[in-house]
Every structure is written in structure tokens, then in C-alpha cells.
Automatic annotation (TrEMBL):
Pathway: tRNA modification; tRNA-queuosine biosynthesis. GO terms for biological process: tRNA queuosine(34) biosynthetic process. This is Epoxyqueuosine reductase QueH. It catalyses: epoxyqueuosine(34) in tRNA + AH2 = queuosine(34) in tRNA + A + H2O.
Length: 234
């Protein structure tokens, strides 16, 4: 079974997605435009009524945070998707993130610092879902091949556990060509191309790795998918 396609959605046949328990109202926790683009198009193609929830106090520095958020807002506006920008207490949320990460500064990616990071973001999203009538919470975080999907799904299920009116939808957005479409959409939309996961420690470690390979450090705000004029020697 396939769905009719909006002219703005990647023109492919997709299976119809049905959120858990047949619900049609979903809160999508999003970290950036490249990770959420395919998830957004997949849900649009299935006629799912969803809202984006952007809460990512892990992203550092502020310039990078704003770039990621603005790209996400730009794409949501294109489709008229509601966008909840949860940064009314950004400075305190950032401080809280750093406090929670204390002692885990040198943990590797996919380790316990990342579990804390997913937990913190999903807990806020689950609370919002509960308080605002969203029976389903999902996330685009797992679409990246750099992430541990089980780790993310465990955090998602844990976040909704206190609420009997919210379930976590642990759909594998990578499957059925989702990973490839994530890149395709990013190129089509010329999304900002981030070069590290997001936090200060991932920026530090990515730069250390690059240095060990004789590559130049990350430049924030420079690369855009599909725009060769912005590419530099990585
Ligand atoms: S590496 Fe990524 S997921 Fe892990 S703590 Fe940093 S920003 Fe969060």
C-alpha cells in the first residue's frame, strides 16, 4: 500500500506508517534538519499529524546551536509543520547539561555521557507530550549510522515510562532506504552540514581525531550539503 505524494515530498512510493496503537498525533524530537528531513517526509507521506520539538541544550557552541535550529525551522516552515522551540531557559538548560556531564567528559561517543544526553532531551520531550496531548513521542536521533539505535530506543522508552498516556515510537527510520534519503534530502535542501555530534566534548574529540590524521580542524558554519562551493579539504 502506498500513499499519494505531495509535490514537496521526495517522489517515491512508501509504505503507510501507522504510529503505535493507531494514534495519528505525534511529537517528533528533532536535533537538526539533516536527521529530521527524511523522518518528516516519511510522516507527511503517511498523513501523520506531527509537531517538532527542538530541545538540544547539548549543542555547543551557540553559533552551531543556532545554525542547526534555524535550518530545522526553515524546513518545517516549508511544510507548515508546527515547531516547538524549547529554549526559553537555554542558559540554565546548558548549565544543567554540563553539570550532568561532569565526570563523563572523556567518555566515548555511544557511551554513558550519550545516554545521559538522550535521557535529558527525551525526558523534557516526554513531559511536553504528556502535558500537551501527544499520545506518541518519537525521535530522529537514531537515523544517523553513527548512533546506537538500541541506546536511543532504551532512553526513549525510559522517558515516557512515568506517563501512561504517552508511548515511545521506536520506529527504525533508517530502514527502507531512509539513511540514503536522509542524505538525498539534505543535498536537495542544501542543509547546513554539521561535522560533529553536537556537544563540546564531541567537538574536542573530533578535532583531536582530525589532527591525528593531519586534517584541519572543524570550521563551524562553513559546509552545506550539495553545495560544492562550501566544501573544503576535510
Ligand atoms: S557525543 Fe552527541 S549524544 Fe553524546 S553527549 Fe555529546 S552531543 Fe550528546
Amino acid at each position: 500500500m502506498t500513499t499519494p505524494q505531495s509535490p514537496l515530498v521526495t517522489p517515491i512510493d512508501r509504505p503507510v506508517l501507522v504510529p503505535p496503537n493507531g494514534h495519528n498525533k505525534v511529537l517528533l524530537h528533532s536535533c537538526c534538519a539533516p536527521c529530521s528531513g527524511e523522518v518528516m517526509e516519511a510522516m507527511l507521506a503517511s498523513g501523520i499529524d506531527y509537531t517538532i520539538y527542538f530541545y538540544n541544550p547539548n549543542i555547543h557552541p551557540l553559533k552551531e546551536y543556532m545554525l542547526r535550529k534555524e535550518e530545522n525551522v526553515r524546513f518545517a516552515e516549508k511544510f507548515g509543520i508546527p515547531f516547538i522551540d524549547k529554549d526559553d531557559d537555554y542558559e540554565n538548560d546548558r548549565k544543567e547539561w554540563f553539570e550532568k556531564a561532569r565526570g563523563m567528559e572523556h567518555e566515548p561517543e555511544r557511551g554513558i555521557r550519550c545516554t545521559m544526553c538522550f535521557d535529558m532531551r527525551f525526558e523534557k520531550a516526554a513531559q511536553y507530550a504528556h502535558e500537551n496531548g501527544f499520545p506518541v513521542l518519537t525521535s530522529c536521533l537514531g537515523i544517523s549510522r553513527w548512533k546506537d539505535m538500541k541506546q536511543i530506543n532504551d532512553c526513549g522508552h525510559r522517558a515516557v515510562a512515568p506517563y501512561d498516556d504517552v508511548v515511545y515510537w521506536d520506529f527504525n527510520w533508517r530502514k527502507g532506504g531512509g539513511s540514503a534519503r536522509m542524505i538525498e534530502i539534505s543535498k536537495r535542501e542544501n542543509f547546513y552540514q554539521q561535522e560533529y555530534c553536537g556537544c563540546a566534548y564531541s567537538l574536542r574529540d573530533s578535532n583531536a581525531h582530525r589532527k591525528s590524521q593531519g586534517r584541519r580542524p572543524i570550521k563551524i558554519g562553513v559546509l552545506y550539503y550539495g553545495d560544492e562551493s562550501t566544501q573544503y579539504e576535510k
